[in-house]
Amino acid sequence: xxxxxxxxxxxxxxxxxxxxxxxxxxxxxxxxxxxxxxxxxxxxxxxxxxxxxxxxxxxxxxxxxxxxxxxxxxxxxxxxxxxxxxxxxxxxxxxxxxxxxxxxxxxxxxxxxxxxxxxxxxxxxxxxxxxxxxxxxxxxxxxxxxxxxxxxxxxxxxxxxxxxxxxxxxxxxxxxxxxxxxxxxxxxxxxxxxxxxxxxxxxxxxxxxxxxxxxxxxxxxxxxxxxxxx
Length: 230
Hints:
Elements: H1 2-12, H2 14-20, H3 28-49, H4 51-59, H5 67-76, H6 78-110, H7 117-145, H8 171-179, H9 182-198, H10 204-229
């Protein structure tokens, strides 16, 4: 029951919920709820948009890909593809949360803070629940309200970042603009606030360093990588 209440309270009293994780670092139910939301949203969007749009998005700009052969495979294995997409979306929050919590824990350890990994995971899990619910809910709303589902942009479906409005020809600029996402920035802000609350003596600057530095390295790699992959 306390874990269930913490999931609901994350949407109305996020800071109080994060503060409670210092004594009760709950993480399983929030990640399970985020996984279910992600899988359900993924299946709904896929059914509304259609598998062929997924093929078109995958083959766009890829001259070496056999687009026609891929279409035939998709038509022959639709049920399996839907199951694979749902399974991938379901496991995504768990894998991402574990990896993110490990990186943050290592950063805090390097900063000289002795904190249990489970506390860090609890913060990440609750923030993931909130941001995944917002993001997937907006996706479902967008694909439901759009008149022509074929116009739904699978790569960047939400107007929460500058890349949705501006379409630079440079892949690096596109990645950089897409990284300035409002939901992502909200999540990072809550992660900083949560780490300060579960790690006694940790300053806000130290928590921000533990969160922003790995994110900056990740974004930098995503921005630079396209130039070397070509």
